Amino acid sequence: MPRTTALADIRNIGIIAHVDAGKTTTTERILYYTGRKHTIVDVHDTKDLKSSTTTDYMEQEQKRGITIQSAAVSTFWRKKKINVIDTPGHVDFTIEVNRSLRVLDGAVVVFDGVAGVEPQSETNWRLADNYGVPRICYVNKMDRSGANFLRCVDMIKKRLGARPLPVQLPIGSEDNFKGMIDLVEMKALVWESDDRDAVPVEHAITADLADKLDISVPSDRKILADIAKYRSDLVDTCLEQDDAAMEKYLEDGVEPSPEVLRKCLRKGTITASFNPVLCGSSYKNKGVTQMLDAVVDYLPAPTDVEAIKTVDQDGNPNGERKSSDDEPFSALAFKVLNDAYGALTFVRVYSGVLTKGMSVMNSTRGKREKIGRMVEMFAKDANPIEEARAGDIIALVSLAETETGDTLCASESPVILERMRFPDPVISVSVKPKNKAEQEKFGTALGKMVRADPSLKLETDRETGQTILRGMGELHLEVTLDRIRTEYNVEGIMGQPQVAYREAFTKTIAEQYVHKKQTGGSGQFAEVWITFEPLERGAGFEFVDETVGGSVPREYVPSVEKGLRMQMEQGVLAQYPTVDFRARLTDGSYHDVDSNALTFEIAAKACFREAIRKAGPILLEPVMKVETVTPSDYLGDVIGDMNRRRGMIQEQLERGTNIAVVATVPLSEMFGYIGHLRGMTSGRASYTMEFSHYDPVPKNVADVVIEEAAKARSAPKA
Ligand SMILES: Nc1nc2c(ncn2[C@@H]2O[C@H](COP(=O)(O)OP(=O)(O)OP(=O)(O)O)[C@@H](O)[C@H]2O)c(=O)[nH]1
Ligand SMILES: [Mg+2]
């Protein structure tokens, strides 16, 4: 089957932003205006579960009015195929943004015109930086009281360190938001009603525009008075992208045509020289089609972005794969979803063609996969397809071996695509089924949830035998159990949330251990010399084999590493995993008959236990970046309370009439914060938090944690 949409006519884009900026509302409008849907549902009208927006179809999303899972839809605009992924803004579901950005070519960053750049917009912006995703900015909610376009542009510059370039200016604001000045075409677009089918009327830009359109607020009038200034900024910035056009302009002074400007805007956006900024009100149906035009004009096609990098088994870069149908097949699995259709594995095809029935290789795991049914997803609906090509985002049904982050490729030309990075879960709860008889069903359901979400981890507490679920936050864990109830029909209960502490070495220790045992005829023998060195925070665990002359036979070296990996999971202070150290296997010895993989594993474990005791182990705790937005009347109380929670105030930012207090606070001090904050401020303050880093726990606090861990271990088993 030949290609139906040229690669250059595809836009794979994500909609990313802080909670409530209006991503889902905007996505819903995109589907309406492109003719993919004939109705519009509003996010706040779905709580009774009678209707849902296209992308927030899950029960938990409808009830809470927030997005939890990213959902993909596709549509056409100006003959371009636009694949849109609507992502969640809540920090607990950041994995969904993370994996979407990994496979997208461009993004629309939505801002709330009142709040401007909020913490999650910042986090997602940085994620997009990491993945090198070009983006345009859309200042939404211009109709809300307190909306301020220029303040938002300024925050994009200062808080995100970006180079925002307005390509539109708002005409009026709040109740009187009427439309926008298109600085490329130099015309005014004015809506005469909020009706979804209202078409903007075009006006020429004249000196009396503000009067003609009844714009009376001085700051709104000032924007219109400054149109020439913004236009000249736009022209100058654009021409940096095109030497020939710049020369011509300098010579004859004639401004470049809109076509030339658009070409420059496209180039500058794709190379991340700047970010075009647009405005609108999705809810009041203004500015969405103009934003779609910008997606088509400025955001990259798969062929405009750098070829995808490939890596070796250890993750080191070793080449690239071009985005083309003529290259061998390669794709990255970025999401696994269990639903009514069975297990769906979402993949982004980077090169080549995949057809139904093909046998491919999972190069990450060295396994084969047979491609059965293939579907194109439209939110929750699956549409069967026969083939997928470079640039496509599709789902494969019932793959046996493939997990999130794995590469699928043609067996004759294996590659591994650059991997994804997953956030580390920082909070844990014990979980069990409400009804003891449902243990197995509950376990299976949990297993499936964890398989689908790499920011969840499942562990068994070796001492108490309890099942421990780790996640990104309380909401994340709650939603997980609630989904198990609605999707797998089994109810679970969870204990009090616990902090995921870590343990670490504070000094270098060279340790020797001999494992020797004589039982009857055969014996056991292994000797290892291992040097343990602390590494910087976040470095994880490194193992290096430095033995020479076969003192530890090569086939047993992996057993030493395995032993260490097992033992490091259980530290000596309070049984938390030990992190951030290097283990160098420097020497050892063996016995021809009595040594084997197991004896080396045992020796390594014991060696670790001995060493960490001598290495001044410390307890580390997750520290969160907390941003509390409060009316200024309560500022003193909010800061005082932060200090009592061992918080360190980083900065205070103006947020319209409110103040945002940014602080780092240990997670253990944040449980129950929301209730306290509401009480303290009569419900007028709100906060968001996200993981920042691990820090040593102060001694007095560590003593309590260690004592409680010991108590929990000696308590009767659940
Ligand atoms: N006044 C006004 N309200 C809007 C606008 N866009 C969205 N909203 C409202 O803001 C709320 C949140 O909108 P959503 O579209 O769910 O926001 P979101 O960014 O998808 O939120 P999450 O997915 O939870 O991160 C809803 O009540 C919308 O009706 C707008 O342009 N103007
Ligand atoms: Mg949403």
From TrEMBL:
One of its GO terms (cellular component) is cytoplasm. SUPFAM superfamilies: EF-G C-terminal domain-like (SSF54980), P-loop containing nucleoside triphosphate hydrolases (SSF52540), Ribosomal protein S5 domain 2-like (SSF54211), Translation proteins (SSF50447). This is Elongation factor G. Catalyzes the GTP-dependent ribosomal translocation step during translation elongation. During this step, the ribosome changes from the pre-translocational (PRE) to the post-translocational (POST) state as the newly formed A-site-bound peptidyl-tRNA and P-site-bound deacylated tRNA move to the P and E sites, respectively. Catalyzes the coordinated movement of the two tRNA molecules, the mRNA and conformational changes in the ribosome. Residues 8-303 form the Tr-type G domain. One of its GO terms (molecular function) is translation elongation factor activity. Belongs to the TRAFAC class translation factor GTPase superfamily. Classic translation factor GTPase family. EF-G/EF-2 subfamily. InterPro entries: EF-G-like_DII (IPR053905), EFG_II (IPR041095), EFG_III (IPR009022), EFG_III/V (IPR035647), EFG_IV (IPR047872), EFG_V (IPR035649), EFG_V-like (IPR000640), G_TR_CS (IPR031157). It is found in: Cytoplasm. GTP binds at residues 17-24, 86-90, 140-143. GO terms for biological process: ribosome disassembly. SMART domains: EFG_C (SM00838), EFG_IV (SM00889). Keywords: Cytoplasm, Elongation factor, GTP-binding, Nucleotide-binding, Protein biosynthesis. Pfam families: EF-G_D2 (PF22042), EFG_C (PF00679), EFG_III (PF14492), EFG_IV (PF03764), GTP_EFTU (PF00009).
